[in-house]
Design brief:
α4 packs antiparallel against α5 and α5 crosses α9. This protein has 9 helices and 11 strands. It is of the alpha+beta class and 300 residues long. It folds into 2 domains: 83 residues, Phosphorylase Kinase, domain 1 (2-Layer Sandwich); 201 residues, Aminoglycoside phosphotransferase (APH), C-terminal lobe (Aminoglycoside 3'-phosphotransferase, Chain: A, domain 2, Alpha-Beta Complex). The strands form 4 sheets. The chain has a 5-stranded antiparallel β-sheet, with helices on both faces. A two-stranded antiparallel sheet has the order 6-7. The chain has a two-stranded antiparallel sheet with strand order 8-11. One of its GO terms (molecular function) is kinase activity. It comes from Actinopolyspora saharensis. This is Fructosamine-3-kinase. Keywords: Kinase, Transferase.
Length: 300
């Protein structure tokens, strides 16, 4: 076996009970190195190294995966084990998107959300309150209701950061503040908390092979799970596009209809990821959030 990162072989053996025979680096990760590991019995697993300067990130991801798996709704890679240095999960082969898999995913996502959460803003059981979304810090803490949660934990912290860094002007941030003041009046704002994936952009929707029945199935990866509003997951799914998106959304609505006018609120629920991207990548995303807020004000 070629030289492997320090501690990887020991972690894989400890979590799976099998010895690694081959290790292949994988690309595409923003925060940490990842590897496909072939075990001595022929099975392959996925291993992710702890990202630098992101304490608790692997604990948060492992807790998120377990919480989603517990619902028995959407497919997530099985967690073999996690510690402060490594996360080891099931490996999923890639496959081409299909309409059947998209419809199955839409129905499963609706059932995931319906499985519920203790409160808006709550972390997964055994998950840390101080978590991460991509490379950005994210606080999970139970709130009174969704408007309070979305305003205080998903919008205001990132707006403050953008203003403090000079990325947004105070006058621009006021537009977003006015939107937050009207959240209580939105249709569906009083819905019970849903169990969210939390970072459901298209890159975390993995079209993979079904190891049991064959064919293609959707696996959700890299979650930042918490209790929240189900429209936020759906809005994230639409932010950068997704294969078979209309089929996913139609199947979702057939399983669990959304509050009237939900399509007009997509931008409002995209404020959070846009602000996060503004913090990470600069003014173009931040000003896009302002534009989305201006559009939301016209419809509220």
């Amino acid at each position: 076996m070629k030289r492997v990162p320090e501690g990887l072989a020991e972690a894989v053996t400890g979590f799976t009970g099998a010895r690694p025979e081959a290790v292949r680096p994988l690309g595409g990760g923003d925060a940490s190195a990842a590897y496909e590991v072939t075990l001595d019995g022929g099975e392959r697993v996925f291993a992710k190294a702890a990202p630098e300067n992101m304490p608790g990130a692997l604990d948060a991801e492992a807790a998120s995966l377990r919480w989603l798996a517990e619902s028995r709704t959407v497919r997530v890679p099985q967690v073999h084990g996690a510690d402060e240095r490594w996360l080891v999960t099931e490996h999923v082969e890639s496959a081409a998107p299909t309409r059947e898999a998209a419809a199955d995913f839409g129905r499963g996502l609706a059932r995931l959300h319906s499985s519920g959460a203790e409160a808006h803003g709550c972390p997964p059981p055994e998950g840390p309150r101080d978590a991460w979304i991509g490379l950005a810090e994210m606080r999970n803490e139970a709130c009174r209701d969704w408007p309070e949660f979305y305003r205080t934990l998903r919008v205001e912290p990132y707006v403050r950061s953008l203003v403090d860094s000079g990325t947004l002007r105070p006058s621009e941030s006021e537009t977003i503040t006015r939107v937050c003041e009207r959240l209580d009046d939105l249709p569906g704002a009083d819905e019970s908390p849903s169990r969210l994936h939390g970072d459901l952009w298209s890159g975390n929707v993995h079209w993979g092979s079904d190891p049991q029945g064959g064919g293609t199935r959707v696996w959700t990866i890299d979650p930042a799970a918490h209790g929240g509003h189900r429209e936020t997951d759906l809005a994230m799914l639409q932010l950068f596009g997704c294969p078979q998106l209309d089929t996913v959304l139609d199947a979702y609505e057939s399983e669990a209809p959304l509050a009237q006018g939900w399509r007009s609120r997509v931008g409002l629920h995209q404020l959070f990821p846009l602000l996060v991207h503004g913090v990470l990548f600069g003014r173009s995303f931040a000003t896009r959030a302002v534009t989305v807020a201006q559009e939301a004000l016209r419809t509220l």
